[in-house]
Amino acid sequence: MSVKTSETLTFECETGNYHTFCPISCVAWLYQKIEDSFFLVVGTKTCGYFLQNALGVMIFAEPRYAMAELEEGDISAQLNDYEELKRLCSQIIKNRNPSVIIWIGTCTTEIIKMDLEGMAPELENEIGIPVIVARANGLDYAFTQGEDTVLAAMVHRCAERDSYLLGDERNQTVQNQALQDSFFFPGNKEETLEPIMNPKKDPPLVLFGSLPSSVAFQLGLELKRQSIQVSGWLPAQKYNNLPLLGDGVYVCGVNPFLSRTATTLMRRRKCRLIGAPFPIGPDGTRAWIEKICSVFDIEPRGLGEREEQVWESLEDYLDLVRGKSVFFMGDNLLEVSLARFLIRCGMIVYEIGIPYMDKRYQAAELAFLQNTCGNMCVPMPRIVEKPDNYNQIQRMRELQPDLAITGMAHANPLEARKINTKWSVEFTFAQIHGFTNARDILELVTRSLRRNNGLEDFGWTSLVKRGK
Amino acid sequence: MKLAYWLYAGPAHIGTLRVASSFENVHAIMHAPLGDDYFNVMRSMLERERDFTPVTASIVDRHVLTRGSQEKVVDNIIQKEKEERPDLIILTPTCTSSILQEDLQNFVDRASITSDSDVIPADVNHYRVNELQAADRTLEQVVRYYLGKARRQGKMDRSITDIPSANIIGISTLGFHNQHDCRELKRLLQDLGIEINQVIPEGGFVEDLQNLPKAWFNFVPYREIGLMTAIYLEKEFGMPYISTTPMGVIDTAEFIRQIQWHVNKWTPAFSNKTVDYEHYIDQQTRFVSQAAWFSRSIDCQNFVGKKAVVFGDATHAASITKILAREMGIRVCCTGTYCKHDAEWFNEQVWSLCDEVLITDDHIEVGDMIARVEPSAIFGTQMERHIGKRLDIPCGVISPPVHIQNFPLGYRPFLGYEGTNQIADLVYNSYTLGMEDHLLDIFGGHDTKEVITKSLSAETDLIWNSESQLELSKIPGFVRGKIKRKTEKFARQSGITNITVEVMYAAKESLST
Lengths: 468, 513
Known about the structure:
heterodimer; A: 468 residues; Rossmann fold; 6-stranded parallel β-sheet; 4-stranded parallel β-sheet; 46% helix; B: alpha/beta; 5-stranded parallel β-sheet; 50% helix; globular; EC 1.3.7.7 (chain B); metal-binding (chain B); oxidoreductase activity, acting on the CH-CH group of donors, iron-sulfur protein as acceptor (chain B)
């Protein structure tokens, strides 16, 4: 079989009429990750109703987030923003006593030009706890990019590494805590007493991106096998354990949507960015570790075997996906990494829709995608930035992919039209990083294929009335 | 600013979108930033909708913020008209576009020039009305628009149908059990020999709206959506309307009597017969609905004086309060609604049926009230269900806001005679669960994991005397086995072979310490 392959990746840009979650949804996973935080979303009923519906049952668990709901008086500036926010924040401190309050700016605060960045330092002084501002609004960002804005804002709050090198003891404790936090499960005290590395010999490495603590632990362990110590994570489990940053600190991202954070780390904190593919899938994880090793001049050990083992253990799932086609509608920026992994699994990717493509930050991942397509002898998929969902559905009607990875707005209607779907949101909440979790990705990808295998014979696959 | 964790009613545009997407072949275009189209997710997930939700966003991004939408909205409207050929496009403002103060009417006027579809802007203020008020307003706006259009084109036919007929106004997508209620209402009206002229907005076509005045009367099952339309039609066309919600045996009968009155006003003009539904009401009440019988049965006797709290939208909270108090003899300690705009009506409906009334949209206030009152059951929204979980009080969900489990696949109307059965089940199940929990608690928690004997059969070396056997038989069936096992376990541990009533009590005491 001859497959026509184009040499380079093609990028297209459509109208941007696509469905995705509002970036304020990042509070859902970040408030759980940063245990002593409180997220205050400064917005309207529209934002509140979204969070309430998107987060479902989490809302009943006394979450550490709330809306500062703007009323007509706030919009028309009859009320004093500063006094209003002070009142709400004092209430939050009284009830929850958080270590940090994070204000999430929304579309409304942008439009009425509420000066959150200006008010935060003043209020911080007055109420005595840090107030961080992240503008995670739908005017500028999509879904997971919300986390990017929060982490970029946190970069400024990380202590300077120099002071540590000067032997400041207070910071040393902080450093120790950060280590304990990212590497060891709570209660595993003995191991945390290991001496920390010699900062002069091993250059410090800080990883950025919010991951469940077990996944962060697994990735740290993989690097430890290569004698690389992770000196900190952004974000850490506790706000007070933010990593030390500064000139000479190496940083590496674990998620493809963190380009602002990466830029801020480089420009504002003089960190050195390791541009690697992302540790999603065994191929990605290996490439990620290899890239870090190469920066630290370490010869990776046993990585090839480790990857091979994981692929072998996936064989039952691979049988299901081989030769099947996928269409990414695009809504969470994980699309390129997932597509690359699925191509390596033997699937054919027709289209990679993606809200926003930072070609510099994702450069290594894009090159890896291109290589993978070459190695697997499949055509390069088209990458569609700011897709138009209507056009995509027309394209899908022609292509009839075996699987569409799509948002929840389109999943049920596509299923009713004989197209298997997987909700893309699940990839953001599931554990998909590292060697250990490759199986989970395929578990998600194959779910509707496995379910529908049993249903095919009944003959009721198309479930819409004629003409719709 | 207000610190808010939870909202009972959504923002205004949700109401507009619910009405727009309920109609057939109507498309809504939201003037909104990226991510505000989660209405599509709600509809697709909660209603398990098979078709694409006819809602798109004309995205407000950074460029729009600096330069205005310019051609973008107009282009999007025209584009959608070409793609889907809808009868009507409703341009929907969101909180964002409200403060941008862009002239949506101007966009609509420009788009109307080239578009074959009708185009109107939804006339709702985001900061003054909520989801329900906006839905009510939008439905009226659409009806007014099409009746006005028919009048201008001289297509208005003012005659009424030959046989009695009604419009059902206010059935909509994402409404609480609306699909089931609609089916039940159609059946009820059919039983009464009344033709359904139109159901709006769900499944209706805007081109048919000009025929609304052909009906003899209008019927608004839920106060929240449809009342404005009914009032408009009464004012413009002299069409009477019924707004009594046929929920519960008494109100259903009342509803049918009102129909009878309206029908008998006109029937003499067509035939000499008048209708009398009393026999029908009597038959349905006594034999089709089980609720009347249920209130006499001993099950329901156990409810006498039991405490309940009710909270929800105005329609459901008021109707359920009436059912609990009048039909089941349950003591409603507090009833309330988050429909603050309808507080006066609500107070009037429930004033003699409960101890206190709570009008608020703050769920914390509702939670505090429930904690203070300590009812044996709650009838409320999903929020009250969770409050109930925390306080260990059972809750039946009777009103939106709701979760996916409140969109059941099976037939579960709240209205009409079948509705009375469903409600009776709901109430009964809430309380028995509550009682069961209570009894389990008295007798020492949930089932033990320790195996006492190897078999479950009654083979045992222990002897129960006649008194203790009698005592055991008094314990309700569903916990009896458990009490027996617990007592026997205690007896074995204490080296007792003869079980007396004293031993039973001692066993119970040993468990409670």
